[in-house]
Amino acid sequence: MMRIAISDEYRQVIKDARARLGLTQRALEQKAKLGMTYVSYVESGKTQSTEPAPLLRLLKTLHQQAERAQVPAKVKAGLLRVLKTVEKQGQGSAKR
After folding, report:
1. CATH code, domain carrying 59
2. What is d(CA 6, CA 44) in angstroms, rounded to the nearest whole number?
């Protein structure tokens, strides 16, 4: 299965959105149904690439939370941009 490279831009968007939402890494992992260290590893760069499914769950969870909360439009737009990019990359891997 193809893996998606996690760029510094992705890391920053995820970290900024999580902080704006007031979520701890653990709370986000629980909401997205991810493993205990997934968000920490993604944000810190310990994870350089990942399968599309968990990264998409993380981004979709953040985007849903941002849509419900009072976060700046810039944060929502950044999340949506990264989410769409990862979805395209994930679809490309499914065709292989």
Report:
1. 1.10.260.40
2. 11
What is the total count of domains within the chain? 1
CA distance 9 to 30: 23
Strands (E), the chain: 4-5, 49-50
What is the C-alpha to C-alpha distance for residues 26 and 36, in angstroms, rounded to an integer?
7
Q: How many CA atoms lie within 13 A of 19 on its CB side?
A: 9
pTM value is: 0.90
Over the stretch 40-58, which tens digit does the pLDDT of each residue have? Answer: 999 999 999 999 999 999 9
